[in-house]
Amino acid sequence: MEKHYLTPEGKAQLEEKLNYYKTVKRPDVVKRIGIAREFGDLSENSEYDAAKDEQAQIEAEITEMESILLNAEVIDKKKINADIVNVGCKVKLYDEDFDEEVEYRITGSSESDPRNGIISNVSPVGKALIGHKKGDTISVKTPGGTTIYKLVSIEV
Questions:
Q1: Rounded CA gap, 105 and 92, in Å?
Q2: Distance CA 66, CA 63 (A)
Q3: If DSSP codes are grouped into helix, strand and coil, which group holds residue 4?
Q4: Which of 111, 110, 104 is CA-nearest to residue 128?
Q5: Neighbour tally for 38: CB within 10 Å
Q6: H or E element: which one contains 76?
Q7: Nearest to 103 by CA among 57, 155, 51, 37
Q8: Kind and range of the H or E element at 148?
Q9: Count of CA atoms in the C-beta half-sphere (13 A) of 57
C-alpha cells in the first residue's frame, strides 16, 4: 500500500473532513434518498438517481479518506534533517529560466496545492528535489520542458 505523508495539521483537517462526511453528508443524502423514494416509480425518478449517485460519490470519498489515514505517516518536523530536502521541508529555489526565486513546501500528495506553493513529493519538481542539498543544481523534467533550479535554502 502507498504511504501517505501528512503534516499534523493536514491529518487533523482530513480527520475533520471525514467526520463531517460521516456525520453530516452521509445522513443528509440518505434522507434525500428516502424522500425521493416517496415520489413513486424509481425507474423514472431523477431525484432518486441523483441522490444515489451522490451517495456513491460520498462513500467513495469516505473510503479514500479512511485509506489515507490508515496508511498515513505524520511528518515530525523535529526528526527532519534540514541539510537535505525531504517531505516536510520548505525550499527556496532560484529558477534560472525565469531569473527568479520560488519557494515550495514539500508535502505528501494528499495535501499538495501547487497554486499556493505546496507541492507533492511525487510531483516532478518534488521528486527531483528530494535528497538534494543547499547549493545543488537540479534539472527537472516537467510536462512543459526541462527547468534548471539552484537550491538556495532548506527550512523545516
A1: 9
A2: 5
A3: strand
A4: 104
A5: 9
A6: none
A7: 155
A8: strand 145-155
A9: 8
141-146: long-range pairs with CB below 8 Å, 24+: none
Helix/strand number for the chain, H first, E second: 4, 7
**What domains sit in the chain, N to C, each tagged with a CATH number?**
4-74 (1.10.287.180), 77-155 (3.10.50.30)
Read off the DSSP letter of residue 149.
E
Q: Which three cell numbers stand for residue 23?
A: 456525520
Distance between CA atoms of residues 122 and 22, nearest Å: 29
A 10 A CB-CB count for 88 gives 21
The cell numbers describing 30, all together, are 440518505
* pTM, two decimal places: 0.79
28: cell is 443528509
**Closest by alpha carbon to 8, among 99, 81, 79?**
79
Query: From CA 108, how far away is CA 95, in angstroms rounded?
Result: 23
What is the tens place of the pLDDT at every residue in 7-57?
898 999 999 999 999 999 999 999 999 888 887 776 777 888 899 999 999
**C-alpha distance from residue 29 to each of 20, 47, 49, 62, 132 (Å):** 13, 11, 12, 14, 48
Query: Residue 65 pLDDT > 90, yes or no?
Result: yes
